[in-house]
Amino acid sequence: MFRQKIFITYWALAALLVPGAAYAYIDPATTTYIIQIITAIVITLGVTLGVLLYRMRMIVMKAKAHVLRLRVRFSPAKNPANSAGADAETGTERTESEDAAPQHAIPVRENFPAVVSAEEYVAQEPLAASEAKQAGTGKRFARDDRKFTRRALSVLPLSFALSFSFIIFSCFDLYVSNYGDMPFTLKEITPVILLTGAAAFLVVAGVLMMFKGVILDVLMSCAFAVLLAGYLQSTFLNKGMGQLTGDVARWGQDHTGRVLLNAAIWIAVLLAVFALRYFRRGAWRKLCVLLPLALVVIQSVALVSALSGVNNTATGYTQTEAKHNKALSYDGIYDVGSKKNTIIFLLDKLDANYIRDVRKTDPHFFDKLDGFTEYTNNITHYSNTFPSICNMLTGEMYYWDYPADEYYYKAYENSPFLKDVKKQNYDIRLYLVKDYDYNDVEQLGGVVDNINTVTYEFRGRVAMVKLLKLSALRNAPMGVKPLLWMSSTEMLHAVSVHRNEHGQYQDNDIEFHEGLMEKRLRAAGDNSFIFYHMTGPHAPFNMNEKMQRVKKSNSLKQTKGSFNIVYDYMEQLKHMGLYRDATIIITGDHGVNGESPAEAKKPIVTGLFVKPAGAEGAPLAVNNAPVAPEHMRATVIASTGGKTDAYGDDYFTAPAKSAEPRTMLYVYDAHGDKDVEEYRITGDVKDFRNWDFVRNVPIKNRYITPWMKKPVGGKGPPKG
Asked: How many CB atoms lie within 10 A of CB 648?
């Protein structure tokens, strides 16, 4: 009855802890921790209670046996003193023959020919010992007193726990934690995960069953240690690891102490398992069966709870099972207006330091910016792609106090910017990355001209490979994680987007340049406003300065390659006679951001080059006026001939000095209450003394953290 009460109480608590769309401070990883911890406590209490009851029962039984022995000892009928030489009941005396020892034949050579003499036995002993020693040398490690069925009962629970924990539970948990960012549905990925888990179980169990004896014990000890250490790693030891932003992880350089401590924990777990096997083999065998099963139960309860809060059909990327969706496509990506053009090349993460590094290696690299002015005192309001680009195009600020998809709707629908451009008879083509810059074309108010129906195809094998890579990244020790690093955009490969004119736009600078050189620009329509979100200097670094795909590059080469793409684009504009009348802006959505508050204590300057319409044949100029995204919108409106009264100064009318403060929200992943630091910048952004700390802004809607968790509710992960 007591166990039933515990069972009922546990499931009641588990039901109450099912995650919903509650935008609280608790990380959903904490919710998973809570469920797993509660489950572990219940199981531990149940086992402890069972052991306690068993011990109490044994104590009672021993007490009863002791009392019984005393009764037998002092019973008159059974006291040997009362029956010396005679039976107390019958009074008959035992005869001498009845007490005599039984007679048996003594074996001799005549009666038993198989019996050897002492001399023969001594002669055969060395030979037998030598043969036994020779046979034992080859089979010592494979000798096992356990039958096949008993070994199977030891191997199967551990094999199942390994495949369940690292494949089934981990992959489902990663999907649930980031389901708004997965480009496929739960219904699509479920059979793939289950089949992969089943195959892994059969392979692991089959391999282990090929061995026995000491070899099997060693393999089982290693597998058990990996299972236990991996569980501890994913559940408790990944805290503060940050996000997959696309930047190469620097854990080895920045967290050396934690890496060493983490490695020590893994080694301690491994040694503890082997020590238990050596000193307490019986306890080791039981633990290798019971603990894996307990982990499966704990994770199963947490997984059922988490899956119950996931929409089975809608995802944050494709949004439907129908495979047909509207999105910003490649339509007209090489089209320009035959009269006037306002073109923005947004090179992701174009930091002023990258520009400085290019100048150090090639002082004349930027001489091709004909008629441009470089603004050296420029900021964006955010240090990440989300919500920076949306803010640049709308002016709407976001403080992580409500879901990102609601922010997208509010920003694009309420902003007059794109509508004012449209009023000037301009075609508007925005080549933005879905879920980083927007997440529904309906948010764009029907003013954008490259919206089209996009066809998707789910690629199950690719999706599984990416999930397994994420699972390995989350469960591996910190020292191994850099080897398993993956870009935040790799998961998009799980969905095949038809890369024709109607395919959904994805930033790929190499493919963009290949198409530019093959198809070349063409004049279509009168006037165009074009916004290209390009990869730019942002990691992963897979492009060199010649716009070629390489396995390994760096920020310097990729920055040069990005500008060379822009140079080729502008060269074609010149060849068409459209360069002089074009307004061209080359900028970034943010600069280089660090991974901790300490790294924010330095200026973050975003690169900016602007060419006004009518400028050509002039060398690159420099302007140190304090500017921000507000000046970009005013510049675009002015270039299209619209009214600028509501937009203020543009880049060309901005005062050289201004007392008007500019706002920067520095985003980092500290997993605490101070996730965003808000600064007010007055004067030159390059002087950190001009940065005044305002407040810590708590993130109530956190985004992608693949090896950790992400709160349910709110879509749109920050890319950078």
From this structure: 13
Looking at this protein, which amino acid is placed at residue 92?
A: T
> Are the C-beta atoms of 574 and 369 separated by less than 8 Å?
no
In this prediction the pTM is 0.70
Is the model's pLDDT at 290 over the cut of 70? yes
Report how far residue 30's alpha carbon sits from residue 671's, in angstroms, rounded to the nearest whole number.
11
**What pLDDT, on a 0 to 100 scale, did the predictor assign at position 491?**
77
Place of tokens 């035992």: 94
Alpha-carbon distance of 585 to 630, in angstroms, equals 14
Q: What is residue 546's three-state secondary structure?
A: coil
Cα(506)–Cα(182) distance, integer angstroms: 15
CA end-to-end distance (rounded Å), the chain? 55
Mean pLDDT for 627-636 is: 98
CA distance 359 to 530: 28
Nearest-angstrom CA–CA distance, 465 and 179: 17
Report how far Cα 703 is from the mean position of its chain's Cα atoms: 11
Q: Higher confidence at residue 29 or residue 544?
A: 544
Taking CA atoms, 149 is separated from 154, 209, 266, 282, 283, in Å, by 9, 10, 31, 17, 19
Comparing C-alpha atoms, which of 142, 197, 127 is closest to residue 165? 197
Q: What is the DSSP secondary-structure string of 347-386? A: ETT-BHHHHHHHHHH-TTGGGG-TT-EEESSB--SBSSHH
Which of the four pLDDT bands, split at 50, 70 and 90, describes residue 303? confident
Going edge to edge, which strands form the sheet with 608-611? 427-431, 527-534, 340-347, 582-587, 608-611, 373-375, 621-623
3-state secondary structure (DSSP) of residue 641: coil
